Amino acid sequence: MAELLVIRHGQASFGAQNYDVLSDLGRAQARATGDWLRRMNWVPDRVVTGTLNRQIDTGVEMGFDTAPERHAGLNEYDFGDLLDARFKGDIPDMVKGDRKVHFRTLRETVFAWQKDEIENPSETWAQFVARVEEARSFAVDTQAKRVLVVSSGGVIGQMVAASLQAPAAHMMNLNLQIKNAAMTRFMFSGSLFSLNEFNATPHYATPEGIQLMSYS
To answer: What is the C-alpha separation between 78 and 185, in angstroms, rounded?
Structure first.
């Protein structure tokens, strides 16, 4: 059996004009992840990231020599686009600036998206599901025994939910739990693909490391 280790990107820049930039904490999280894997003698044979800056830069900060591949199917869904579609371009200020309101609205909006209740999104729920599956298939179509993927919470939540054949709503319940730079591990061989570990952060399991913990 081979391993697919999926890492959520480090903390990005919530509330900034450009969210798609790792914060200093996000860079430290990525370095801690890479350091812990090397201490465990876990070095990837293949590395694949999405095409978003926060995903690419997380891979860089992890510090492995393996040249990364890119697959846009690993990119996060565009929540800003979903909000624009839901609120017809008039997004309430509280959704933009208040973290609690933001994540409550995120949850409600994705549930509506899954039910095709949002008009004219740039990507439908069915399209999202299909391209995540395409990216997963790409990552495991290999002779490599250790595949490292850097992606985002929604994609990881969908991979886990699909592997468990869970209802669509579980994707979002999982998505909101995933910590920055957390590890989710799958085992694969041919058509076999199964969840082994979800949202693990052993690299934070020290008094110093716990200071690195974040969810957004």
So the answer is: 25
Dump pLDDT digits (tens) for 140-153. Answer: 999 999 999 999 99
In the chain, how many domains are there?
A: 2
Q: For residues 26 and 53, what is the distance between their CA atoms, to the nearest angstrom?
A: 12
Predicted TM-score (pTM) of the model is 0.94
Shared domain check, 95 and 47: no
> To which residue do tokens 């959704």 refer?
95
DSSP H helices in the chain: 24-39, 53-62, 79-87, 93-97, 99-114, 125-140, 153-163, 169-175
What are the structure tokens assigned to 136, written together?
């997963």
DSSP H or E stretch at residue 17: none
163-202 exposure pattern, b = at least 16 Cβ within 10 A, e = fewer: beeeebebbbebbeebbbbbbbebebeeeebeeeebbebe
